[in-house]
Amino acid sequence: MNTPPTPGMLRALPLEHRQRLMRLAREVAFPQGTRIFQEGGRADRFWIIRTGTVELDMHVPGRRPAVIESLGHNELIGWSWLFSPHVWHLGAVATSPVRAYEFDATAVRSLCQDDPALGNSVARWVGDVLAHRLRSARTRLLDLYAPYGAGTGTG
Question: Are 78 and 89 in contact (CB under 8 A)?
């Protein structure tokens, strides 16, 4: 089962909202191997990948972090900044050199509060990203744990 691609900001936000949001962006770079954020840390920013790849991972006691998803061009890194208590639910590490647009979460939340239409657009975009990632995680879990042929409708 294939899920549609993650809705990128360029497709998800109306031009005016995209332009206003991009005024808050700053270009950043992360060398390969850089831990961008740690699970449980303060979610005070987010990124949109321009080039490179980032893995989202989860802490597993006594083991290496478990990779949850790999992200690439035009994908959102981080959604925890939008929801209280603004703490990262996962970690993120650059698996290749990454160039990205970085956004200050407080400034974006303030912009969204001041302009409810923009806030609604951003919330819908982030919600679509979350829905896509949940569908992808569900598919991976089914592939990993469902018995072969389960749910095929035969029988």
Answer: no
Token look-up 């294939």 returns 2
Whole-angstrom distance, CA of residue 6 vs CA of residue 146: 25
Do 47 and 102 meet the contact criterion of CB atoms below 8 Å apart?
A: yes
Note whether 87 and 41 are within 8 A (CB): yes
| Size of the chain, expressed as the number of residues it contains | 155
Question: What is the Cα–Cα distance from 37 to 52, expressed in whole angstroms?
Answer: 16
Q: What is the pLDDT along the chain (155 residues), one digit of tens a residue?
A: 333 444 577 678 899 999 999 999 999 999 999 999 999 999 999 999 999 999 999 998 999 988 989 999 999 999 999 999 999 999 999 999 999 999 999 999 999 999 999 999 999 999 999 888 888 877 877 776 777 655 555 54
- Nearest Cα neighbor of 37 from 106, 86, 85 is 86
Domains in the chain (CATH in brackets) are 15-144 (2.60.120.10)
